[in-house]
Write a structure and sequence with these properties.
Elements lengths: L1 H22 L25 H8 L9 H4 L6 H4 L1 H4 L9 H8 L9 H8 L9 H6 L3 H5 L1 H4 L9 H22 L1
Length: 178
């Protein structure tokens, strides 16, 4: 009889031990109970653009300005501010932030910023040589169509018209696919 009691006691003890270990869950907490853990609740994963925007946007205008970017603990947003701010409006919106986090090119293009980056001779316009030298393939391919006044230079108004037309063309192509 003592053997049966000993076996029963050991079995019950083992079961209780197993239950208590499994009831605690995986090491480190796991799951998605903890808040602010980044994408998909993975601890240490990169944060979502909306998370970053909500944390840095202290005045709640849905934009990150340079002062707010300076408060980024990692310093990455303020360091890359001009790159992330693809439309050159001195503000980072959710779309620009998301594009930079996902290594995509943002949809908006700032003609003013483009001229600033590509204009080697500082005349405020872009010629074919400057465009080709900077590898702006889209502008090179459509240079003569963009240059509506046919002066051999792309000015800010011609670039604005081109990019506005391009965005609306891409939107209509997407609608046709849907």
């Amino acid at each position: 009889m003592k053997k049966n009691n000993l076996k029963t006691t050991i079995t019950i003890f083992s079961m209780l031990l197993c239950f208590s270990l499994f009831a605690q869950g995986p090491p480190g907490g796991g799951g998605s109970r903890g808040g602010g853990q980044g994408r998909g609740g993975q601890k240490g994963g990169p944060p979502e653009a909306s998370e970053i925007l909500s944390k840095l946007d202290t005045n709640k205008d849905n934009y990150i300005d340079k002062d707010e970017a300076a408060k980024d603990k990692r310093g990455k947003i303020s360091e890359d501010f001009e790159v992330i701010d693809s439309n050159g409006d001195e503000l980072i919106d959710l779309e620009e932030l998301d594009a930079s986090l996902n290594d995509r090119k943002p949809k908006k293009v700032s003609p003013k910023k483009l001229i600033k980056e590509v204009d080697d001779n500082g005349d405020g316009t872009l010629n074919e040589l400057e465009v080709a030298a900077k590898g702006e393939k889209e502008l090179s391919d459509d240079f003569s169509a963009i240059d509506t006044n046919e002066d051999g230079e792309l000015d800010i108004e011609e670039l604005k018209a081109f990019f506005e037309k391009n965005v609306s063309t891409k939107k209509s192509k997407r609608k046709k696919r849907d």
